[in-house]
């Protein structure tokens, strides 16, 4: 049997889009209008490829969960500059961060309700702050998501190489292997990734909560073996704890808030009712993260822990709460695994955001396509490729990447909060003043964090982000202008003239007689008013017998179609056919010319390696040099010799 091929690949569909009026379907180089009602709601049959609340925690909260491994430590390391007196402010600083977390969770619950089709900061800024602010929010989130992948993977591998020093020299290869694993799982769908990471998430949360409870019932550390023999990172002389130091500690500790926005960005990935499930996931994430951050800070003060070189604060807390036993190693191993897998948050949020940008024509439309498992596979692959490049450049060293981390997310937080203030002012729903005040306070806090983190980390690599952010915005606008020019040339949005019939000529390249040739001519005479077969001949002695055999067999067959021979002085195949089509077009400008290229479709994928790819060569040459319509006819070779 035979068929005229469609674009290769699995079935794909446009991203979920907001309702109202007409939206656009990414396809090819331009857009085609589709009814908005066709896209917002996922069919019930696709629910198995979407997230439940529990799966949402596993798929979209790993970044935030894993941040408890370095958030409290970031606070302690800054406050250690003021000596033991400075460490006494660990809990107040953490409580301030927890308060900001509560503000963000409350805000993003409202974002989810107001913008149930995803996008988070980008969607809010686009609606209330204008195009440029929306692009800044999108660029900041893109940078943060990419850096999150690189930082998470390197942090997890760093924990592994700390336990097994012999692997240190192979850390880059291990990082790339972990990235490949996470990418492969996400290409199977976000639900599969959630199922795969549900157990590690549950083990980590249970281990940390158990450690907190065990530590709270102790009057003294169960063990200090982990820190013994390691030099203290505490400043030798106590200094005054000034506002700047507290502000810096607060900003550093806010790295624990990265990932809070991921749920709002990926609302379309949830099962119906998607907004309600996403809100529950956001609240559960905020509650767990807040309890763990405050609990760990209480234990730091309870056991009077000091930062030491070579040992994490979390490891010291596990040692003090649980003792240096099997439970200690469970906490360490769970932390290591979750740090490595925290990159999955980016794979859940970034492809959806890229799909929304593609829908708005700020990224190539290919990023808006979804495969049959509701996977934005092009976004997943692009994220993996950029993260792999970062890992290779950094050599798998987490210290090279950390200074760049978390700046972008604060920019997104701030723009989102400001946008929500405007949202409440315009809507004036009941209680809008209190909500606007809450979001305004959050915008102030996150804005200060963005400035402080950028200033303190500027010379350590944050300057790269300061450059990359505007460059990304310029790239978005360049893509948008390109699509605008394409749309203008195609006349999108305007009613075209009525279609009219033109004389048609179908050109069929052939190289021999076979059932494939017969099927091609059958299709050609069905498509066109006239059909001409063409074959490229070479004047080399080894080629003459084949050309003479084709000429003789064609005369014997006598299909009623002229066979035109195209002599070629070189071994080129596509150019002579393209030149023939160009000549036909010049002689018959009113005729619609179609080039029908017959190709055999093997019964098994591995048999594609046996094909000579002549059809692809001809198609590429005709597409490059002519305006002819290209039709590639696939003749399926079924198993058992039947077709």
From TrEMBL:
UniProt feature, compositional bias: Low complexity: 29-44
Chief location bin: membrane
Gene Ontology molecular function terms on file: transmembrane transporter activity
UniProt keyword terms in alphabetical order: Membrane, Transmembrane, Transmembrane helix
Chain ranges passing through the membrane: 89-112, 133-159, 171-190, 197-217, 237-263, 283-305, 325-358, 379-396, 402-424, 436-455, 461-479
Region annotation (Disordered) ranges: 1-45
Membrane topology category: Multi-pass membrane protein
Localization terms from the record: Membrane
Organism domain of life: Bacteria
Gene Ontology cellular-component terms listed: membrane
Signal peptide coordinates: none
Gene3D superfamilies, sorted: Amino acid/polyamine transporter I
Pfam families: AA_permease_2
Name of the protein described by the UniProt record: Putative amino acid permease
Organism per entry: Streptomyces angustmyceticus
């Amino acid at each position: 049997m035979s068929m005229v091929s469609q674009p290769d690949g699995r079935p794909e569909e446009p991203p979920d889009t907001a309702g109202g009026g007409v939206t656009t379907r990414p396809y090819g180089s331009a857009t085609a209008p589709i009814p908005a009602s066709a896209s917002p709601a996922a069919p019930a049959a696709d629910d198995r490829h979407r997230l439940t609340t529990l799966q949402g925690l596993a798929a979209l909260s790993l970044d935030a969960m894993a941040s408890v491994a370095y958030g409290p430590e970031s606070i302690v390391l800054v406050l250690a500059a003021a000596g033991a007196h400075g460490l006494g402010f660990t809990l107040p600083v953490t409580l301030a961060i927890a308060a900001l977390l509560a503000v963000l969770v409350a805000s993003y619950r409202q974002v989810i309700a107001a913008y149930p089709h995803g996008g988070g900061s980008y969607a809010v800024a686009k609606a209330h702050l204008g195009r440029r602010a929306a692009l800044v929010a999108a660029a900041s989130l893109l940078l943060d998501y990419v850096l999150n992948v690189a930082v998470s993977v390197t942090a997890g591998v760093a924990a592994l190489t700390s336990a097994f020093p012999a692997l240190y020299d192979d850390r880059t290869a291990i990082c790339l292997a972990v990235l490949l694993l996470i990418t492969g799982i996400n290409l199977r769908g976000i639900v599969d990734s959630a199922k795969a990471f549900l157990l590690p998430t549950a083990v980590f949360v249970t281990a940390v909560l158990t450690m907190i409870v065990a530590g709270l019932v102790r009057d003294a550390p169960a063990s200090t073996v982990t820190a013994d023999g390691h030099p203290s990172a505490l400043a030798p002389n106590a200094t005054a704890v000034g506002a700047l130091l507290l502000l810096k500690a607060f900003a550093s500790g806010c790295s624990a808030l990265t990932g809070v926005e991921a749920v709002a960005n990926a609302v379309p990935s949830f099962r119906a009712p998607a907004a309600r499930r996403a809100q529950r996931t956001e609240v559960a994430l905020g509650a767990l993260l807040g309890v763990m951050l405050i609990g760990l800070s209480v234990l730091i003060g309870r056991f009077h822990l000091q930062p030491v070189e070579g040992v994490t604060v979390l490891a010291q807390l596990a040692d003090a709460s649980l003792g240096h036993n099997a439970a200690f190693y469970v906490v360490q191993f769970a932390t290591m695994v979750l740090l490595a897998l925290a990159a999955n948050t980016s794979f859940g949020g970034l492809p959806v955001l890229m799909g929304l940008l593609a829908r708005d024509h700020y990224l190539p439309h290919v990023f808006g396509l979804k495969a049959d498992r509701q996977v934005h596979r092009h976004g997943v692959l692009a994220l993996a490729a950029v993260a792999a490049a970062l890992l290779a450049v950094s050599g798998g060293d987490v210290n090279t990447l950390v200074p760049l981390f978390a700046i972008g997310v604060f920019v997104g937080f701030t723009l989102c909060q400001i946008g929500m203030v405007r949202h409440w002012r315009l809507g004036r729903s009941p209680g809008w003043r209190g909500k606007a005040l809450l979001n305004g306070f959050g915008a102030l806090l996150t804005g200060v964090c963005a400035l402080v983190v950028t200033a303190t980390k500027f010379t350590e690599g944050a300057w790269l982000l300061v450059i990359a952010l505007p460059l990304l915005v310029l790239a978005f606008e360049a893509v948008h202008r390109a699509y605008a020019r394409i749309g203008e040339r195609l006349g999108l949005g305007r009613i075209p003239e009525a279609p009219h019939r033109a004389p048609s000529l179908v050109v069929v390249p052939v190289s021999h007689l076979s059932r494939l040739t017969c099927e091609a001519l059958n299709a050609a005479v069905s498509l066109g008013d006239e059909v001409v077969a063409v074959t490229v001949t070479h004047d080399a002695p080894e080629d003459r017998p084949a050309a003479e055999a084709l000429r003789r067999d064609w005369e014997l067959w006598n299909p009623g179609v002229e066979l035109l021979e195209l002599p070629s002085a070189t071994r080129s195949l596509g150019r002579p056919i393209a030149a023939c089509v160009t000549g036909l077009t010049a002689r018959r400008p009113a005729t619609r010319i179609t080039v029908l290229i017959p190709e055999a479709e093997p019964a098994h994928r591995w048999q594609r390696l046996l094909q000579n790819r002549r059809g692809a060569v001809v198609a590429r040459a005709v597409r490059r040099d002519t305006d002819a319509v290209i039709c590639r006819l696939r003749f399926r070779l079924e198993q058992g010799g039947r077709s």
